[in-house]
Design a protein that fits this description.
globular, six-stranded mixed β-sheet, alpha/beta, about 260 residues, 8 helices, two-stranded parallel sheet
Length: about 260
């Protein structure tokens, strides 16, 4: 971890989206004691995952269907609930809208070239509507934006070339080799960015331009610039969280099955 260590505070976290986000979100949160505050905009289908889906529903995670006209009111109402409840949420959003793949990156680059936007190699053009909705709706509890840039080290393809790990790679990581999650965080006060929608859209573009520069630096030096601020975790600390998740998920799964059986 480089840049600024994220403090325990309500924040809107803007991240690039390379692979399945739960890995780096939880890895970051467990080191900064913010697991209970983490929420992320997530696909509606996750509701149906036994245990996890029900836990997320009960703790008011924001689910979306990828139809922004439909999702905008849902997100606005939920984010407003966070504000009324004064929930110290750290809400992760991924303005690129989807996990980056070579095909999706090429499509973003083509669109950027056609519309006169910068053509980037490491990030895709961000979508501003969800960001603006979140920032406006969380006005009152979120005072800071955490610009978080993520990169993965140690996962390689059959030719030994670095690659972004998929879900199978993450689950079957070979412990005999070094694997590292690289984070760089820039903390920005909401009062330091424009207050109008057009200005905030421009800020988001500038935020991703900074991510592009950081990832270009990483491609050359295999690390982000700055001092390493990462906190090392003991086995005991990890075990507490793993057992907690396991037991909680099993309990919720049985509750879900009992409710399902009572209905049908």
């Amino acid at each position: 971890m480089t840049g600024t260590r994220p403090p325990r505070e309500p924040a809107l976290v803007l991240s690039n989206h390379l692979t399945h986000d739960w890995v780096h979100i939880y890895s970051n949160a467990i080191r900064n004691n913010t697991l209970g505050s983490v929420r992320t905009v997530i696909k509606d289908a996750i509701k149906m995952v036994p245990g996890f889906g029900q836990a997320m529903i009960l703790t008011k995670w924001p689910f979306v269907s990828r139809d922004f006209k439909k999702d905008e009111k849902t997100l606005h109402d939920l984010f407003s609930l966070y504000t009324r409840a004064k929930l110290p949420v750290q809400l992760w959003i991924f303005p690129e809208g989807t996990r980056m793949t070579p095909k999706k990156l090429a499509s973003s680059q083509k669109y950027a070239e056609e519309k006169g936007y910068p053509v980037w190699k490491h990030v895709m053009l961000p979508r501003h509507r969800g960001f603006i909705t979140a920032l406006n709706s969380l006005n009152g509890i979120v005072k800071y934006i955490h610009e978080t840039t993520v990169q993965y080290e140690g996962w390689t393809n059959s030719k030994g070339v670095d690659k972004i790990p998929g879900i199978g790679d993450l689950i079957n990581t070979n412990g005999n080799y070094k694997h590292v999650l690289h984070f760089h965080m820039n903390r920005v006060s909401v009062t330091d960015i424009p207050q109008d929608d057009e200005g905030r859209q421009k800020y988001l573009q500038e935020c991703f331009a900074r991510k592009e520069a950081l990832l270009e630096h990483y491609s050359k030096h295999k690390q982000f610039p700055g001092e390493n601020l990462a906190k090392k975790l003991s086995t005991a600390e990890l075990l507490v969280h793993v057992v907690g998740w396991f037991v909680g998920s099993i309990v919720l799964m049985f509750l879900y099955i009992n409710i399902f059986n009572s209905i049908f």
